[in-house]
Design a protein that fits this description.
Elements: H1 4-19, H2 28-32, E1 39-40, H3 43-52, E2 58-60, H4 61-64, E3 69-70, E4 92-94, H5 95-109, E5 113-119, H6 124-133, E6 154-161, H7 190-204, E7 208-211, E8 214-220, E9 228-229, H8 233-239
Length: 241
């Protein structure tokens, strides 16, 4: 178990890495990318991919989805690491995924339901830290491959009651790393099972695929076409104002 001082030092390093503005000084590239993956680390590189293919655009979900509930847990200590990971409570997704969520939001609204977003695009530096804290690739992406979140092609979310803003009952809280979070786990609570199935149905029918072990995690189809990224939220915010 890492000591308190070691944890503080490591989280400081990761926070600095997440907020770096694409710096590639000697020694930093290896520290931020120890597995030598192809990762976009500068705004210039990112904008080049967008110019080549507009579907690479990362869309701010809070702006794209009118009235969507945002609860970015990694911008608070209320997550499995117990640390503040993100420096801004933002949710970004590739354009096609964001458009699919907009359609899903509109369909759910007819039933008095809405979406709450827990996480979307995730800088690669955060994936490195998550594995340091919890080295189990069932629930945490393997850093030697990178996460679909790093590609801007994954979203963690739940359903809410639009009238009250309250989350619907689900089998587990978000980020509970247990077998109970699996889609195939037999849930005794029929309401939780129904809500889990409702979310899965609307997501799968509108462009997403589920992740078996986490009821809250969905991936856009053909997500492999998107590059891994380690761009900070601050940099994305600057070019989208």
């Amino acid at each position: 178990m890492r000591s308190g001082i070691q944890r503080v030092v490591l989280i400081a390093i990761i926070a600095m890495s997440i907020s770096l503005q694409g710096c590639k000084a000697p020694g930093e590239v290896k520290e931020r990318n120890p597995y030598n993956l192809e990762i976009i680390t500068t705004i210039e590189e990112y904008l080049s991919t967008v110019n080549a293919d507009s579907s690479n655009l990362l869309v701010d979900l809070e702006r794209h989805l009118p009235g969507v509930a945002i609860d970015i847990r990694y911008a608070t200590p209320d997550n499995f690491t117990g640390e503040v990971i993100y420096t801004m409570p933002k949710a970004w997704l590739r354009r096609d995924a964001a458009d699919s969520l907009l359609k899903i939001q509109q369909l759910l609204a007819k039933e008095g339901l809405g979406l709450k977003i827990f996480d979307a695009y995730r800088p690669y530096a955060a994936t490195l830290y998550f594995y340091e804290v919890y080295p189990d690739t069932t629930f945490v992406a393997a850093p030697w491959k990178g996460s679909i979140h790093n590609r801007g092609g994954a979203v963690d979310l739940t359903l809410i009651d639009l009238a009250t803003g309250e989350e619907l009952i689900m089998p587990t809280p978000f980020d509970e790393f247990s077998e109970r979070a699996s889609h195939s786990y037999p849930i005794e609570d029929s309401i939780a099972a129904k809500n889990r199935d409702k979310l899965r149905e609307v997501m799968i029918n509108n462009g997403f695929t589920m992740y078996e072990h986490e009821w809250w995690h969905y991936n856009i189809k053909k997500r492999e076409r998107y590059s891994l990224m380690d761009i900070s939220f601050e940099e994305l915010e600057k070019i989208n104002k």
